[in-house]
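Bit of a strange request maybe. I'm writing a small parser for structure token strings and I need a real example to test against, not something I typed by hand. Could someone generate the tokens for this chain?
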Amino acid sequence: MITKINLSNVACYKSLASLETDKKVNLIYGLNGTGKSVLSDYLYNKSNSAYSSCSLECSSDEDIIVYNQSFIRDYFYEPDNLKGIFTLSKENKEAEEKVRTAEQEITKYDDEKKKRNDIIDIHNSELTAKKTTAENKTWEIKTNYAGGDRVLEYCLIGLMGKKEVLFNYLSGITKPSQRPDKTIEQLKKEVEAIQGATAQKHRMLSTLDFTAQNIELDQIFRKAIIGNENSSVAGLIKRLENSDWVKKGLEYLPSEIGNEGALCPFCQGQTITKTLVDNILNYFDETYENDINKLKIHLSDYELAINA
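Reply from user aminoacidic:
Good idea to test on real output. This should exercise your parser:
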């Protein structure tokens, strides 16, 4: 049983106020603003920091149960549209509030969606109007050139049925980087030159007889031309991957090489010996030279055929 309640430094209790009783049933009454709700709120939530200066004395360890407005707010939920109808439990109240918050969010997003859809409808209407204008403009091509002298009408075959068909066809053509030089009148004259009674007839060009076409089928073009792989310098030349460069360097060697060696055309050092020269010459053997000479003959014959 509660025997004493001390209230201080909270709401209307600026100084210490104590209530002592030895009765099991106590009735507390007073005018509005005299602290009745503060007293019940303290008993409902003693751990609240606002009541740090308040205290409670009991004859034993009591389980205090309070039914006040704070309890109602926490455990009872009153729907806005059903006054007087309550849903019991704190969990249900929280769920209902989450549902209401979610519904408000949905309403907000629905409004935003409607605004965006209205903007899209406006843009689509503008796009449709602009497309209609473009279709009418391109249709002038049909009205201008499908009648009258009809010289250029053949260019519109299959495109004269609907405005949309002609517009889509023209939209699919890549626009040239430069404005065409020819005028409509020039195009008409060129078309008239090959059509109708005034068409100018030209003789067909004779078929060209290219005599060297069989050169392209020679098997030598299917092989890799390499030197003697048994030569001691074959591995080095293969690593260099440029046998033509090595062969060209032979032209810069002296005709006679003494015991002291000769200047190398590749590294500019005194490293060339007669033995090294013989090994390089052995790499470019007769088979290699024959293949090279055959290519030279083919090249000469091909150039003569082209010039002819």
